[in-house]
What does this fold into?
Amino acid sequence: MSWWAVDVQSDPAIRDAVGAWLVSQTGQAVEERPDGILVGFAGDAVGAEGLCRLIRSQFEPAVAATPRELGDVDWTTRWRDGIAVRRLGRVTLVPSWLPVPQEADAVIVIDPETAFGTGEHGSTRASLRLLDGLVRPGDLVLDLGSGSGILAIAAVRLGARRAIGIEVDDEAIPVAVRNALRNGVSDRVEFLEGDAADLAPLAGPANLVVSNILRLPNVALLPAITRALVPGGTAIFAGMEVPEKVLFLPELERAGYQPIGEMEDEGWWAVAARRP
It folds into this structure.
C-alpha cells in the first residue's frame, strides 16, 4: 500500500501539542526528526491534503504542513525502526517487540501505540534520569500528562509504593493500562482521565510529582502541584527545551520552589525542585 507523509514544521513552543493533535487525527504514531520536523501519515493523497488543511486551520500561522508520497511500505509498524533497548540509570526500557535482556535491573516493557512515551524523546529520558535519583521506597508518585504510562510504571519499578497517572487524552488511558498490565504493576499503578489541575490535589498528598508536559502548562499547574505535594515534597518539571530554562526558573522561584537538580538531553531540559 502506498502511504503519504505530512511534514509539519512548527513553533517549538507548540510542537508537543501539534504532535498530540496529529496522533489524535490519524491514529498513527508521529515521527519527530532531529531537525524538529514532525511527520504524520495518511493512507492516500486526498487524506494527506486534507490533513494539511486541517492542521493549518488548527495552528496557523505557527505551522507549515507539506504532503509527501512514500513508497509501498507498512507505515503502521515502520515507526518502530530505530527504537532500541535503552539503559537509563537503573531503568532498562524494552520496546514490546524486542526481547528483554537477561541482565537488567528495573525493566519496563513499553508499547506507546498512539500515546506519547517510549524513551526515545529527550524529555522522557531526562524525566527518567531525575526520577531514578529521587524516588524512595514507600513514595506515592503522581505522573501528570502520563501518556503511555512510562514514568508512572518506572516509579513503582524504582521502589515507589504506588503511582497515579493523570491524562487528559482518553485514548492514551487504555494504552497506559495495557502497559501497566504488561509490566505486572497494575496493582500499584492506576490512571485517571481528566485535568491535572483538578485531579492532582485530590490524588495527593504525594511525595513526588512528575509533570512532563510543556512550559506554559507546567507554570499553570504550579499551584495544583503545590497542593498535591506533601510539605518538602519534590516535583520534576519536563517537556521544555533548553532555552526555556531562563523562563521557567523564575516561575519556580516565585512559587517558592528550590531547584535541586537539572538534566539536559538532546536539547530538552528538566528540573527537579523541592516544594516550600
